[in-house]
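Margin note: ligand = pyridoxal-5'-phosphate.
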Amino acid sequence: MAFSRFFGRGRDAPPAQPPVDEPAESGDEQESEPDVTDVDDASPEAASQRSWRERAEAVLPTGASTGSKRAVALWGDDADADLPTHLLSARGCRVVDVQGTSYVDCTMGLGSVALGYGEPRVTRAVVEAVTEGHLGALSSWREVELAERLHTLIPCAERVQFLKTGAEATSAAVRIARTYTGRERVISCGYFGWHDWSSDAAGVPAAVRSATQRVPFDEVAALERAVAEAGSDLAAVVLEPVVERAPSEDWLRRARELCDASGAALVFDEIKTGFRVAPGGYQEVCGITPDLATFGKALANGYPLATVVGRAALMDAARETWISSTLASESTALAAALAVLDWHEEADVCATLAETGRELRAAFERAIAASGIGGVTIDGIDPMFLLRWDDAVREARFLAECARAGAIVKRGAYNFAAVAHDEDAIQEIEAATSSALVALADWERSR
Ligand SMILES: Cc1ncc(COP(=O)(O)O)c(C=O)c1O
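Resulting structure:
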């Protein structure tokens, strides 16, 4: 396999060298560089002429397989060409782009990395799993061990099933609730990924859309109305328990009562809150136990793992339907999650995330106050908070200047605290933010 096929091309190719032990290519296998003289400039074949961003946009229909990592999602419309889009490496809370430029990262893999990138203990566990052979004819022992440990940590987790993504796990929760209740309608509040049951996007059949009704966050009366309308066909109420702020206790308590009264399943999507606000998720914090819950993201510190957990009576309905994925029990992600659980056993990781988030947030607040810039506020909870701008152009300008000053800040969504955000990193973020706000003020004065 020729690594030069990947690393040797592109106008902004990374500084990485092919491994020294790369076997010499046989003449037969060797591929010559494509002749780009007679190909369309925008086609993948013209890759050697273009930046990674241009290449991505030519070959990936949306520009990036993770929607939030598209150039436009990172930087807004008309993102300048110097802004980073492609990763070379990541360590702690720092990422290096393909140009070799290092940034302090406030996005932390969209909240999937709560310890830090390449956290050594997690990496060792993954390497051990790889070395053993991470996949075979049989289920990994780690699947059983991790399920047992989650059972002791998560209030509702009498049973556990693993999947790979948050969307899969939450779709599985809905399938289980429908199977258990024999009903179809779902009430939801939050973001649950891209799958049909929760999406209004193009391509979702109208019949599927109409089976899910969205309700606003933390509005008891709206929830009561929706439950009454769904009547005896209500299978599940699926809630993200935290959406930019903690909910009133009343909302979740009422959701529990309404589900109990109607025979529907109460589902908490803890993909963001699990192993972040508490190991057992927001249900551990609020004391209201759902029937089913989903976890992902911080569970495996960035390795692909998600889980649906819940009361045995409901989860056992998984036997009557079909929820399965070829790689759900491969062991690298399971090993990563076991190492994450070791961390939580030995240290109060979630208290650290709250404290670090508080400090990060305070750093942004100080920079904003010192700059005198208006039109931006900070929402969210300490371990996951967001900057809300009154104007998309000002926001884009700010984010671009942050990046030029060495920090990647999330556009329009959460920044996530990580254990790896140490004092130096927080200072660098404050300095970058301050300098970006000064640049924004200068730009606004000059307009
Ligand atoms: C609350 C919540 N649920 C589900 C998902 C979907 O997870 P994934 O992107 O891993 O499919 C996300 C992703 O951000 C999420 O925040």
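The longest helix spans residues 423-446.
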